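chain below, 159 aa
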Amino acid sequence: MAKFKLDEVDHQILDMLIDNTRIPFTDIAKKLLISAGTVHVRVKKMEEAGIIMGSSLTLDYIKLGYSFIAYVGIFLNKTSQTQFVLQRISEIPFVTVAHVTTGKFNIFCKVRAKDTHHAKEVIFMIDDIEGVMRTETMISLEESINDKKRLMHTIFSDL
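prediction:
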């Protein structure tokens, strides 16, 4: 597949979609002084090229009662157990992200919980998975940076 070339209009479209994935194409078109059809065609091409992969919804977990965030590093008995352990972790809905890593941990997870008591229960669920030797937990005091735009603009400037 040939490399898809983004231009400044594509960058601006992506910029607005990152801010609000539900923004109507007509609103984007008005702001960029182009037709809604042009926006639709460009977004479709970026989807077909695999640059845009679906859209996401941002939830306010604090308002939903899940304000506690912990990061759990998982040490495995054997690395050959990685896929088995990942499958068991995927069955715990409070584990929202899991990475297979190099370095200190075999797997590194993000856990969302109601409070410390709930987080302890989730961590014990992880500890109980066959193949997990032990875990190490870090508590997030605050999410200070969660910014997709800065990386996007750096990528655009490198193209």
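The helical segments are 8-19, 25-32, 36-48, 82-89, 116-127, 148-158. The domain at 68-140 is CATH 3.30.70.920 (Alpha-Beta Plaits).
thats it, cya
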